[in-house]
Amino acid sequence: MSRSLKFTLIVIFFYCWLSPSHEELKGGNSSCSVTLGGANMAETHKAMILQLNPSENCTWTIERPENKSIRIIFSYIQLDPDGSCESENIKVFDGTSSNGPLLGQVCSKNDYVPVFESSASTLTFQIVTDSARIQRTVFVFYYFFSPNTSIPNCGGYLDTLEGSFTSPNYPNPHPELAYCVWHIQVEKGYKIKLNFKEIFLEIDKQCKFDFLAIYDGPSTNSGLIGQVCGRVTPTFESSSNSLTVVLSTDYANSYRGFSASYTSIYAENINTTSLTCSSDRMRVIISKSYLEAFNSNGNTLQLKDPTCRPKLSNVVEFSIPLNGCGTIRKVEDQSITYTNIITFSASSPSEVITRQKQLQIIVKCEMEHNSTVGLIYITEDDVIQNQNALGKYNTSMALFESDSFEKTILESPYYVDLNQTLFVQVSLHTSDPNLVVFLDTCRASPTSDLASPTYDLIKSGCSRDETCKVYPLFGHYGRFQFNAFKFLRSLSSVYLQCKVLICDSSDYQSRCSQGCVSRSKRDISSYKWRTDSIIGPIRLKRDRSASGNSGFQHETHAEETPNQPFNSLHLFSFMVLVLNVVIVATITVRHFVNQQAYYKYQKLQNY
């Protein structure tokens, strides 16, 4: 049934009489706790305006004998703005009563449009109000749907710097009972500007029926920055690199829907250029206002490999891989540099002269001690500008189940037995295939800050532990194994730290190629591409060979106590204790009996 008259304030209170699917329920014992749906098989959806009194506890159960789920939407909530979420709230449960699993809780403090879905054909919601005497109104709309049935072009994921999307069937009328979610996520450092070219949805002052909800973040639990309907063309801007858009429609009055587009805005203020260096790429940001002096918007800029194109937004961004797009790699004086050049593409191969300014941006990343240093040379009619950037090689360390190094151990902490063989791998995450990882030093400590005492497993590339085995060089991976141990007079936790060197794999004179070198023979010059990795804690299970290792102090953790049997020493101590208790109890009882006998048979003296 059409709701063409419901926008008049007078008519909306009579709408429950006009339509069997839209009710106005007021609080009180007569209508506070009811079952909706039930035997009425034709009722697949319902809209309700709930008017609530102070100090009420109302429960509604939605059920239908059909294999479908329920979606319930609280599109308009007016509760006590000063009430706490504990004293006044809406709770939604999966099932036929409030004893079912809690799907979520809503109160006046929530900053989103609450939507919940049941796992089956029953759902219960409960509203509790405090004693404040104010007007309370909740608009509830629910309908049954099949989870396996989807509407084409209803939601999706958008991850390009710019794009567009529309409601299903646009510009034709949008479908009824639709709930579509679009997730927009761009690269870090950018914000999102969302522009609606057209919105044509049902008009309502509170946007209760058909609406668009825009969230400032990656999900519908992020902060709500807008709920719109009717005929408007708003613009929204995110505070980060993600935005979420929701379209919700009911069962009547379908119109054209919406058409939207978005662009990315680089969040930082860049006057000319910016460079950051990471393990796998160089990222160059060029200000469009800077390029205006060259009559360019960035379309004519290119790298040494012209097929690698920039991304255009309010800035021009080049994401340059270290092993592609014409990047030149150079090793000298124990440093590795990556260089590329950004220039204007020539208008025509036949051109011989030009009267326009020429721009050349030389991009250079140099790997430094524990970091990478970036340097940009900009030549503009013999004018050179320099900028520096810092970054780090990205490394990680992990434990593996076997010497195949295929399955990573994800447990933390990881519980092991004494003398159990552990397999450790340090990984370098980079796109440069010509680098190799060398394990220089690996040491263990009972504390996470690697404080004293420490124990060296590997030092100067040499194994210092009889159970430690260092694997040969293997590209971006440094590997070793050792047998588990514990520190004396310390907790049973062990943390590992490895200092690794990253070398050019083709340089056979590098420190990595030298392997194990004693300190007296070791080259003491600094190595500019070095980094650290830490892993832990590794904790011991209860020592199963305690009788043969009296030098270890055992510390039992709460997680380790179940199902651990008494050993012979524990049993002997317990029996001795029980025997002593029995002896003391026997002597005490015998003494008490003798005392009673003495007082009972003692004759009174005659005076």
Question: What key phrases describe this protein's structure?
Answer:
5 helices; transmembrane; CUB and zona pellucida-like domain-containing protein 1; Jelly Rolls; transmembrane helix; CUB_dom; 6-stranded mixed beta sheet; disordered C terminus; disordered N terminus; Immunoglobulin-like; membrane; mainly beta
Account of the 3D structure:
The chain is mainly β. The chain folds into 4 domains: 33-145, Spermadhesin, CUB domain (Jelly Rolls, Sandwich); 156-266, Sandwich (Jelly Rolls); 273-347 and 356-370 and 377-391, Zona pellucida, ZP-N domain (Immunoglobulin-like), CATH 2.60.40; 395-516 and 528-542, Immunoglobulin-like (Sandwich). 8% of the residues lie in helices and 42% in strands. This is CUB and zona pellucida-like domain-containing protein 1. It comes from Papio anubis. The chain crosses the membrane at residues 571-593.
CATH architect. name of the largest domain? Sandwich
Sheet with the most strands, sense and barrel status: 6 strands, antiparallel
CATH topology of the largest domain: Immunoglobulin-like
Q: What's the count of strands?
A: 39
**Strand portion:** 35-45%
CATH superfamily of the largest domain: Zona pellucida, ZP-C domain
Total of DSSP H or I helical runs spanning 4+ residues: 5
Question: Measured on Cα atoms, how large is the radius of gyration?
Answer: 37 Å
Going by helix content, strand content and strand pairing, the class is: mainly beta
Low-confidence runs (pLDDT<50, min 5 residues)?
A: 1-22, 25-31, 38-42, 381-390, 522-528, 543-569, 592-607
Q: Termini distance? A: 117 Å
Calculate the mean pLDDT score and round it.
77
Under CATH at level 1, the class of the largest domain stands as Mainly Beta
How much helix is in the residues?
under 10%
As for the number of domains, it is 4
Q: Give the overall form.
A: flat
